[in-house]
């Protein structure tokens, strides 16, 4: 099981400024402007409203981040997942990640708040209760606006590793609390970053941020000579 000792409630209200601030102080403590918390609350409220629209009015979903199979392949080439038996994509969208993993012999359970995508479940992946089942590996591409909530939550809930598709600027230009959190994870030997991905539909340079449950698991699972190399930003 994950060695992360973070104690989280089963649920929280992320549709209010106070609720977002409370969640972030648990997940990624540090300074956060009230206007930024309000913006996040508004984004999440809109996403919830959108997910309840009749199917004929639904689109791909607010903040959906498209991916290509070519962005997923470097992750499989860099990490030995052969000893892992349970995979979860809580922000699955069109299911690109699960399709690539399935072709490699791994079964991924899909979830997406928007039932338009036809995932196995339509739970809110920003709620701790979405992770009651003990999945070993979480591999996903959350909406980029929600990463400060999603990344530490996924890291706390993955028993082996959380593999998160993030834009390069989220790593290269972190706000203070994010920088401190990433630095703590890196100091514990739990972080690996895979750069050099092809440009996906978002037209952004993205990366895979891997947060392992322990440093020893990172050492066990990382393959030597992968197509991408770990990068160390000055911040961490």
Structure description:
This protein has 236 residues and is of the alpha/beta class. The chain has helices at residues 17-27, 34-51, 69-78, 96-103, 147-157, 168-172, 176-187, 215-221, and strands at 87-89, 108-110, 137-140, 161-167, 191-194, 206-212. It is built from eight helices and six strands; from the N terminus they run αααβαββαβααββα. It has a six-stranded mixed β-sheet with strand order 2-1-3-4-6-5, sandwiched between helices.
Cα-to-Cα separation, first versus last residue: 25 Å
Helicity range of the residues?
25-40%
**What is the total tally of β strands?**
6
How many H/I helices? 8
**Which term fits the overall shape?**
globular
Q: Classify the beta-strand content into a percent band.
A: 5-15%
- The topology string of helices and strands comes to HHHEHEEHEHHEEH
Q: The biggest beta sheet, please?
A: 6 strands, mixed
Give the class from helix and strand content and strand pairing.
alpha/beta
pLDDT < 50 stretches = 229-235
Cα gyration radius (Å): 17 Å
Task: Describe the SSE topology.
Elements: H1 17-27, H2 34-51, H3 69-78, E1 87-89, H4 96-103, E2 108-110, E3 137-140, H5 147-157, E4 161-167, H6 168-172, H7 176-187, E5 191-194, E6 206-212, H8 215-221
Parallel strand pairs: 1-2, 1-3, 3-4
Antiparallel strand pairs: 4-6, 5-6
Helix pairs in contact: 1-2, 3-4
